[in-house]
Amino acid sequence: MSLLVICDHDRGKLAEASLEALAFGRSLATSAGLDLEAVVVGEGAESAAVDLAAHGASTVHVASHELLTDFGPEAWGETVTQLVRSSGAEVVLACGTDRGNEVVAHVAARLDQPFVANCRSVEPDAGDWTITRVQ
């Protein structure tokens, strides 16, 4: 069982928010007893994956295809949805960028799961998580 962090990058250069999301995810994964995984999509994903592995992701998934070269929230959302289904990730986080929020919203809709943006705190507790968000 794992917690998956969707990381944002620009042609291989990670957004600072991605490293922040990974650190936040690491803390949550440890508290919840989950493995920490990350995913990067699009051109340059391989370069970004090296940085993510160096920052503690136990597994880094790379989605690279000519149709994923440029940002497209629907295509990227479908790609991450397929990964969530195949990996069995229980929790999905995204960095708080416009791209991250848009992709995770598509993923949540496809999986018919709740989506909470702009979280201030998350407290995992035996299946029931308490989430506080910025309003």
What does this structure look like?
The structure is a single chain. The protein has helices spanning 16-32, 45-54, 73-87, 98-111, and strands spanning 2-6, 9-10, 13-14, 35-41, 59-63, 91-94, 119-123, 130-133. A hairpin with a 2-residue loop joins strand 2 (9-10) and strand 3. The termini are far apart. It contains four helices and eight strands; from the N terminus they run βββαβαβαβαββ. Helix content is 41%, strand content 25%. The protein has a single domain (2-133), classed as HUPs (Rossmann fold), CATH 3.40.50. The protein has a four-stranded parallel β-sheet with strand order 5-4-1-6, sandwiched between helices. The model has no long low-confidence stretch (mean pLDDT 91). With 135 residues, the protein is of the alpha/beta class.
What are the defining features of this structure?
25% strand; alpha/beta; single chain; 135 residues; Rossmann fold
Short structural summary:
With 135 residues, the chain is an alpha/beta fold. It has helices at residues 16-32, 45-54, 73-87, 98-111; strands spanning 2-6, 9-10, 13-14, 35-41, 59-63, 91-94, 119-123, 130-133. It has four helices and eight strands.
* Global geometry: globular
Strand order across the largest sheet: 5-4-1-6
Question: Mind telling me the C-alpha Rg?
Answer: 14 Å
| Architecture (CATH level 2) name | 3-Layer(aba) Sandwich
Largest sheet: 4 strands, parallel
CATH topology: Rossmann fold
- Number of discrete helical segments: 4
CATH superfamily: HUPs
Low-confidence stretches at least 5 residues in length (pLDDT < 50)?
Answer: none
Quickly name the level 1 CATH class: Alpha Beta
By helix and strand content, what is the structural category? alpha/beta
Count of discrete structural domains: 1
